């Protein structure tokens, strides 16, 4: 870390976990390239200065460096913890081989990854849109799946890894070499089940590895299905591609999908939209999907009701124990009793 001194106050904000600030101090430290990446997932960094005669006096730069080294190690620990856990209730980890994408569908209208990207939390430029360079990930980041794989082997478990939450793995504008690196990583982690989800199923065949055959045993292929017009045709494309598990992410569910052909589909995740501007979801739409899943022997997982659940056009207010709104509708213990039939969280059986 260089000892040149720059402004460190208000050096960034985080991905929703709090802000980073230097308290009582306005003139620390050159940030190493890794630092800005590392701080993205921490809650707060506070560096104090001594107050002498009412004026804040900066520490000597050596002291500041010492403090920052301690901070960095704390941040790295937090980042590791963050990366090992996802808030998505159907996966254990998320992994993004790169960050950035282009909106391509109605389901992208409130893409939280784009919102984050526009706030430039990870970089000084955005990574969204046609012809815009995607953000590549650090060497350290790429080591995470290898560590998860070792742990999974030790613990005799098979964690599900969602790929990707801030990109689309079948994006035709993936950074050079990164999709190939993803496949290498998938091959090197046989104890993880990788869930590759896309809104671009027509690109899947072109981007599968040469030795894909009937499908890698540790890869589940999925498509997003948010509506009839754009979502349903994706199911037909997915059905024609070999995979050990094919799944649908019916989220955000934007309308009644009507009759579904779930032949050769193994799993359906269902959920409403969350976040600012979220569109409503009628619980009748979920009931219809669940009924069809049952009839066609497809495992279903109702992830959440979303921010604006409705019943027959009337808004449902889901409240937490403290009386505040539950804006995700994910905690099934808060759902009204008559929605018990929607509490379904089943996983697909391994097909081979
Ligand atoms: S495809 Fe996914 S990551 Fe890309 S813009 Fe749409 S919602 Fe966001």
Characterization of this structure:
With 352 residues, the chain is of the alpha/beta class. The chain has 2 domains: 12-84, no CATH class; 93-342, TIM Barrel, CATH 3.20.20. The protein is 26% helix and 16% strand. The protein has 8 helices and 16 strands.
What's the short version?
Helices cover 26% and strands 16% of the residues. It has helices at residues 33-38, 61-84, 112-118, 139-155, 178-187, 204-207, 228-239, 283-295; strands at residues 12-13, 19-20, 50-52, 55-57, 93-94, 98-99, 135-136, 160-163, 193-198, 219-224, 245-250, 267-271, 281-282, 299-304, 309-311, 314-315.
| Individual helix count | 8
How many separate domains?
A: 2
| Helix-strand string | EEHEEHEEHEHEHEHEHEEEHEEE
CATH architecture of the largest domain: Alpha-Beta Barrel
- The CATH class of the largest domain is Alpha Beta
Q: Which ligands appear in the coordinates?
A: iron/sulfur cluster
CATH domain fold name of the largest domain: TIM Barrel
Instruction: State the separation between the terminal residues, measured CA to CA.
Output: 51 Å
Question: What is the percentage of strand-forming residues?
Answer: 15-25%
Return the structural class: alpha/beta
Q: How would you sum up the major sheet?
A: 7 strands, parallel
Structural key phrases:
alpha/beta; TIM Barrel; 2 domains; binds iron/sulfur cluster; 16 strands; disordered N terminus; 16% strand; single chain; 352 residues
């Amino acid at each position: 870390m260089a000892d040149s001194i720059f402004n460190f106050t208000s050096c960034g904000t985080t991905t929703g976990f709090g802000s980073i600030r230097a308290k009582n101090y306005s003139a620390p430290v050159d940030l190493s390239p890794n630092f800005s990446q590392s701080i993205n997932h921490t809650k707060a960094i506070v560096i104090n200065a001594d107050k002498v005669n009412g004026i804040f006096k900066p520490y000597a730069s050596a002291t500041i460096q010492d403090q920052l080294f301690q901070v960095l190690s704390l941040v790295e620990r937090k980042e590791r913890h963050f990366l090992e856990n996802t808030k998505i209730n159907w996966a254990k980890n998320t992994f993004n081989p790169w960050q950035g994408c282009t909106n391509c569908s109605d389901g992208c209208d409130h893409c939280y990854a784009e919102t984050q990207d526009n706030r430039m939390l990870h970089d000084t430029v955005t990574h969204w849109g046609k012809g815009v360079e995607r953000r590549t990930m650090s060497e350290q980041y790429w080591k995470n799946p290898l560590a998860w794989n070792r742990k999974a082997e030790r613990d005799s478990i098979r964690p599900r890894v969602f790929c990707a939450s801030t990109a689309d793995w079948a994006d035709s504008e993936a950074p050079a070499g990164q999709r190939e690196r993803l496949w290498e990583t998938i091959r090197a982690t046989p104890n993880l089940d990788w869930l590759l989800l896309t809104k671009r199923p027509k690109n899947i065949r072109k981007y599968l590895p040469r030795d894909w055959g009937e499908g890698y045993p540790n890869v589940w292929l999925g498509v997003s299905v948010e509506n009839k017009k754009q979502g349903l045709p994706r199911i037909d494309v997915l059905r024609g591609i070999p995979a050990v598990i094919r799944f649908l992410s019916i989220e955000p569910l934007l309308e009644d999908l009507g009759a579904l052909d779930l032949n050769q589909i193994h799993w359906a995740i269902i959920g409403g939209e969350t976040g600012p501007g979220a569109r409503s979801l009628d619980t009748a739409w979920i009931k219809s999907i669940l009924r069809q899943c049952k009839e066609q022997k497809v495992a279903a997982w109702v992830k959440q009701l979303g921010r604006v659940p409705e019943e027959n056009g009337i808004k449902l207010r889901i409240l937490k124990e403290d009386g505040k709104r539950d804006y995700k509708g994910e905690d099934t213990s808060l759902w009204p009793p008559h929605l018990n039939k929607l509490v379904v969280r089943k996983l697909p059986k391994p097909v081979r």
